[in-house]
């Protein structure tokens, strides 16, 4: 639902991709990873989150899968690390 609320900003062609990436990191990604520290994460969960994030990033950049642009190129354009890496970081962060 956060994506739908923010799509007006994230899909605007006048806003540069790096700024969209920063907005995505602050608003959408925390909602996507909420509670990830305590999930029993399976490979299917990781794959679904990766697919969902790439769909959002492609939509932000104005590309589709038929454009055949590699995921790494889109991530570099927006300036973003993989959601899988962030999920791993969140799970490894331990509060003592």
UniProtKB/TrEMBL annotation:
Top-level taxon: Eukaryota
Record's protein name: Reverse transcriptase
Organism expressing this protein natively: Solanum commersonii
